[in-house]
Amino acid sequence: MKNKSIKTINVTGTVGYVVSILLIIAAISAMVITAIAGAGAIAVADNDISVKVATDIDIKSSGNFLDTLNHFIKIDGVDDLSDLISKDENAADDPAVTFSDKDISEITVKEKDGGLAVNAKAQEKIFSVKRVIACLAVTFCMLGAATVMLHMLKGLMKAFKTCETPFCENVIKKMTYFARSLVPVYALYMVSNGMWSSLGRGSDFSMSVNLGYVLLIAVVYILVEVFKYGAGLQKESDETL
Questions:
Q1: Of 5, 12, 236, 28, whose CA–CA distance to 145 is shortest?
Q2: Measured distance CA(227)–CA(233) in Å, rounded
Q3: Which of 212, 151, 187, 155 is nearest to 23 (CA)?
Q4: Three-point CA angle 133, 139, 141, nearest 5°
Q5: In terms of Cα–Cα distance, which of 125, 135, 133, 129 is closest to 202?
Q6: Fewest CB atoms within 10 Å of the CB: 97, 129, 217, 238?
Q7: Within the chain, where are the H helices?
Q8: Coil vs helix vs strand at 111
Q9: Could you tell me the pTM of the whole model?
Q10: Phi-psi region of 114 (alpha: psi -120 to 50; beta: other; left: phi over 0)
């Protein structure tokens, strides 16, 4: 008769096994979508893409928050942010302030219904489709690594589903495989995220490290060592008995 703790581990393994299968299906679907997008991009690989973005924002406040913002925001050629406001609500063309900022080209601010209506236009961004293809290729590889990792997770959950003890050799082996599979996924994720971010900014490639993910991987490896230690203690106990 299994004790309550083992039953709980088995049930958790069963649920995790089903969830991991669903995640594998989602990852494979994402790979297919990425592959289709990549094939479409390859068809127009010699073209460039031009992007212009305009954003409308309605701001309402009970106080004059522009006075507060004046202490934090400084715009070349503008002494007071209230100077940006167009007072004529019926004006067809509101005066716009042009920026030399790398992201914003111009901004229009107009008083409206006790608040402000802000229209900001981004600088035109032009980037090569070949860079998009490179981003999609790395994303595809990352999704492939994630699919492998999810298969390792499925194997671990299956081991938990049928184990008599969490310190058995099969559980530890599957947990070790899962821990190792996390590393390439995170490495490819960092590269992919850096490439997409650089593409959106129209800048050179840059990459940052997320300490949260690094900590997660470290915790999984620590758990592997803990389970190995627990298996050793259990083996010694069984030999003693």
A1: 28
A2: 10
A3: 151
A4: 105
A5: 125
A6: 238
A7: 4-43, 65-69, 129-162, 169-201, 211-240
A8: strand
A9: 0.69
A10: left
